[in-house]
């Protein structure tokens, strides 16, 4: 492995982040309220819209040309608890 000082400042290829971005804490909190039936889906959509606007601005500000919504509306099935008693052979 090369020492950090010998690594060229620009890689010989071009790459941009395309995909999921970290979700803001406000979005996690709103989803938790949805899970607890304290909020309606329209409340969640408003927070998601704000988070997406921020994600788009962030990407534009740093010069990313391929802008995504950061997958902030994406539902992650991997976060759901699994019940092994319902496993079928």
Report what the structure shows.
- The radius of gyration is 19 Å and the shape is elongated.
- By secondary structure, the chain is an all-alpha fold.
- It starts with 24 loop residues before the first helix and ends in a 28-residue tail after the last helix.
- It is built from two helices and no strands.
- The mean pLDDT is 75.
- Helix 1 packs antiparallel against helix 2.
- It has a domain at 29-66.
Low-pLDDT stretches: none
Percent in helix: 25-40%
The mean pLDDT is 75
Written as H for each helix and E for each strand, in order along the chain, the element string is HH
Q: How big a fraction of the residues is strand?
A: under 5%
Report how far the terminal alpha carbons are from each other: 48 Å
Q: Based on helices, strands and strand pairing, what is the structural class?
A: mainly alpha
Number of strands: 0
Quick rundown:
It is built from 2 helices and no strands.
What distinguishing features does this structure have?
89 residues, mainly alpha, 2 helices, elongated
Secondary structure layout:
Layout: H1 25-35, H2 41-61
Helix pairs in contact: 1-2
């Amino acid at each position: 492995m090369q020492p950090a000082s010998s690594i060229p400042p620009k890689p010989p290829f071009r790459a941009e982040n395309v995909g999921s971005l970290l979700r803001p804490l406000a979005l996690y909190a709103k989803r938790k309220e949805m899970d607890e039936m304290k909020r309606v889906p329209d409340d969640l959509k408003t927070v998601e819209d704000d988070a997406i606007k921020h994600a788009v601005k962030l990407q534009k500000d740093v010069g990313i040309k391929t802008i995504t919504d950061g997958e902030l509306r994406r539902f992650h099935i991997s976060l759901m608890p699994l019940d092994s008693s319902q496993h079928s052979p």
